[in-house]
Every structure is written in C-alpha cells, then in structure tokens.
Amino acid sequence: MDMLGQPHCGSLRYMIGFLFDNKLTELRQYVSTVGDALKSQLDGLGADFDEKTKGMTDAQRQWYVEWEAGEAFQLAEDFPALMWQTAFIHIYFVLEHSVLDLCETVRGAKGLTDPVTNGKDKGITAARKFLTKVGVKFPFEGPDHGPRWRDLQQMNELRNIFAHRMGQIHDVPSQELKRFIERKKVSIEIDSIGRITLKEEFCLEAIELAREFFADVLAAVPDEMIP
Amino acid sequence: MAKYYGVHMGHIVGRVIDTEYDELRDYVETVEDALRGKFKTFQERAEARAEGMSPDAKERYFEDLAEDAIFLWDRFPSLTWKTAFTTAYSIYEHHLLNLCGHARRYGGFDIRVDDIKGTGIFAAQIYLKKVCKVAFPDNCQDWQDVLQMNKIRNIFVHSLGRMKRDSTWKGLAEYQKRKEKLIEFTEGGDIRFLEGYCLDAIEIFRRHFKTTLAAVPDELLRQSKDE
After folding, report:
1. What pLDDT is stored for residue B3 in this prediction?
2. ipTM score
3. How buried is B37 (Cβ within 10 angstroms: 0-12 exposed, 13-18 middle, 19+ buried)?
4. How far, in whole angstroms, is CA B147 from its chain's centroid?
5. Which chain A residues are closer than 8 Å to B86 by Cβ?
6. Nearest to A92 by CA among A39, A23, A14, A141
7. What sign does the dihedral A174-A169-B28-A203 (CA atoms) show?
8. Cβ neighbours of A93 in B, within 8 Å
9. Is residue B56 within 8 Å of A60, Cβ to Cβ?
10. CA of A61 to nearest chain B CA: how many angstroms apart?
11. Angle B9-50/A79-110 helices, nearest 10 degrees?
C-alpha cells in the first residue's frame, strides 16, 4: 500500500482489483449496448412500416401488423428480459469466481493445504468461512457490510433459481427472498405463473453491489496474505 | 388392458422445449444482428470523422476507438454466446429433471430423482434408466456432445471459461477438433465460442431431449386406468 492506503500500481492486490473492475465495467457496457441495440432494432421495425405496407389492402395491412407485433414484443420485452437475466447470472459468476480466486491467493500465500471449498458450503459462503478462518477481519454481519452480504445471499438464491429452475419459483420462496423481492419490486417482477423477470436496474445494481463488496473484501485482506 | 386418458405430458413438454429453444435461438440471432448493425454504424461514423485527418492523426484516432470496436465486434457477441449457452444447458437440464418428475408421478415410483446419487443430467440419466427402465439414448453422438457441453458449462460457471491443464482439457481436445469451426481453445486455456457454436449447441440439446422424450413410454407420461 502507498501513503494514501492505495495499492501500488503493478502489485498483485492492484491487479486483482483492476481485473475485477474491468470485468464489471465490460458487463455494464454490455447491458447498456445490447439494450440500445435491441431498441434500435425495434425503432427500425416501426420506421419503415409505411414503406412496407404501401399498396396493401386493409386486410393485408392488418395481417402484417399482427405478424410484426410478435417480433415487436420480442424486441421490446422478451429479449431485453432474457439479456438482463443472462447478464445477471454472469455478473454473479464473475463475483463468485473472483472471491474464490482471492481465497486461493490467500491460501497460497499462507501455504495452506486445506481447500477453500470444504464440506457442504459453496461459493461466497465457503469464501466467507475460509476468510474468517484464516484471520481476515471482515465484518460480514456488521452494520456496514451486513445489508450488502444479505443482499448477495439473496442474489445467490435468485441465481440458483435461474440456473436450475428457469426462473420459476415452484415452492413459496424463503421469507428472506420474499422480502428481498418486495424491496426490489421496481426492478424484479414475478408474473402470474410464478416466473421471475429482472429489469435493467437490477443488473446495474447487482454490478455496483458486487463492485463495492469485492473492493471492501480485498481491502480487508492484509498485505502479508497477498504477496 | 390399460386405457390412457387425460393430457399427454410428452406433447406439452415437447412443445414447451421447442418454444424455449426457438426463443433462445431468435434471441441469439437478433442480438448478433443488432450488434453487427451497431458496429457498422460505429465504423461508418469513425471513417467519416477521420476523413481529411493526417495519417498520424488518423492512426491515433483509430487506436483510441479500438477498444470500443473490439467490444462490439468480438467481446459482446462472445458474451452473448456464453450466456445463451449456459441458458441452453439450463433449459435441457431443467426439462430432463422435470421429465423424471412426470415419469415418477404417472409410473407411481417411490424413488425420486433427488434420491439418486449424482446431480443434474447424470441423476436424470440414471433415474430414467434404472428406475423408470427407459431406454435412455446414451449410446449416440448427441449424448457424447452433451457430456462435453456439460464440462464446458462447468468451466464457464466455475472458472469463467478458463481451463486448467488437466484431464478435462485433454478430454475436450477431441471434441474441439471435431468442432474446430465453432469453438477454439487459446494457449492460456480460455474457451472461445465462434459464431454458430451456440446455435449448434441449442440444436443438439433440443434433439437429444426429444430423442429421450420419444423413448419414454406413454404410461409414464399420462394417467391410465385399468379396464
């Protein structure tokens, strides 16, 4: 660390933070660029409507409108929703992988033989246990980080619902997830058949949450554990 | 003699999987197309702005734009293929496990797929073969491809697409050689999808699922009553 407490450019700590930030920045740009690109496709669909329907009878025009409506709905609703869902899953993969990778770095530095993921814990929960065990003082449940940690756990549950149940809540979701969805109702929806749909804001919030969480955890790892 | 009545789940499941894969296919093609359109506009604007610049200024200008161009041309399509591929895998796994649930319900089996040692598609394979006595199609090229895609999916989910130099890499090498126009491995062990891989994967998942569905006898897919 330098005098201002910032990692030296070129140090391993700096590189870890830099690479993680880069991945998230790319994902943020991806969400916004693909969203814009789909919107442009939708605008293009309506723009040449008059040109395409020139000379058509009313019945033909009506048929054409119905045919185009399906495509318009896909561009306006289905495809952005699919993009946000798949992007969210990827954001979570990036976070999980990066946190576990950080644990591996610490494990190497301390010369530990036990694996990071041991027993029934997986992902960020295994990482938390590992970091706590090796003496990283990060208050996961404290007043500053507790809310973020709990949101990440709900995101983990959401990720599992998308990855294994196609976004369908079959059983009643846990109380925590229910409260989380209620709190995020502007950016998460559950439709009449119990399928979860995410909005762009949710993806962007997930990116920021991951960014803040990872930066704080990384800062809490002492220098001797990141050679 | 048994008489069957009620809804035949096989017909419904077959249609649902077609709808989901058709939508995913449309999504991939639309996003590819939309990103190509963005890139074209970007390129035309850049060339128009660079007109009249000195060769040095032009070179510097294009260097500044290189990252954005790479995102539009390479990184974002690649991210779309990766995320869509993991979704295609999830659809396949989800419906295969659901199929086990239908077979248990109509076949009246006590054992559930969750009781089987193993997870995901492997548990489904064992359940359908051993418990339901279905002639599960695991002696075909599509299943061999599904097994390789399972490995690739796990590498994306757990290592963000980077392989270690281990037996998995060796095992995937033959698959990659067979699909060399669709997928490549970098020197560092990163898996790179090329255009067409994701759509190829979707069709293999769809085809294998439908072959499996066709192998499940009627009595395991709808209610029967003895006459």
Report:
1. 64
2. 0.86
3. middle
4. 12
5. 86, 89-90, 163
6. A23
7. negative
8. 156-157, 160
9. no
10. 24
11. 80
Which of A33, A93, A97 has the CB atom closest to B38's CB atom? A33
Residue A109 in tokens: 């530095």
Q: Is B27 on the interface with A (CB under 8 A)?
A: yes
Cα–Cα distance measured from residue B193 to residue B157, given in angstroms and rounded to the nearest whole number: 15
Tell me what the mean pLDDT of segment A3-26 comes to: 84
Token pair listed for B169: 């890499």
- Per-residue pLDDT at B227: 42
Please report the pLDDT score of residue B105 as a whole number: 92
Q: Is the dihedral of CA A55, A58, A62, A67 positive or negative?
A: negative
**Does A22 contact chain B (CB < 8 Å)?**
no
Contacts of B91 in chain A (CB under 8 A): 166
Q: Say yes or no for a CB contact (<8 Å) between A74 and B156.
A: no
* Mean pLDDT of chain A, nearest integer: 87
Across the range B51-72, mean pLDDT stands at 90
- How far, in Å, CA of B104 to CA of B107, rounded? 5
Selecting from A33, A41, A93 the residue whose C-beta is nearest the C-beta of B160 gives A93
